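1st attempt posting a full record on here, be nice pls
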Amino acid sequence: MFLSQLGQTRGVPAQLLSSVKSSNDAHRKWTERRLEQLLDGVSGKTVAIWGLTYKPGTDTLRRSSSVELCEWLAEGRGTVRAHDPAVKTLPPELANRIHLPGSAAGALDRASALVISTPWPEFREVAAAELTTRMARPLVLDPNRFAGGTLGNKAGIEYVSVGRSVLW
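the predicted structure (as tokens):
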């Protein structure tokens, strides 16, 4: 952004930089587009979100694309059940929009989809059987391919990641 603005003030075109920003913005909306498509809309659906912090090893929610996703789901009249190992309580503006069960497995209850937003190592430890028995539909969206080795090859789980079609 800074370099694009600098180019504008100096009268130097920076098409490549604006294209990179457009591409990054499109990637940030990938999960929303796929949820809309795969669930035929999010209204009335429960979506489990694993990870709320912007990166593992921190407890900050600032600049978190996971929080943006949760807000988008709530605005679309979806129910959000999220778990993050570092988040025990939510700020007041999020508390009435996001339900926080006590565990990653608890977030799965009756969910139509699971989105793995923040790659916390403990999410790799949840057994595939937890998904297939707890979820209404064992659909996993993993934009960063974090759980491809653990959940991506399990029978009965629809696994979707960037650049990869739905796998059963």
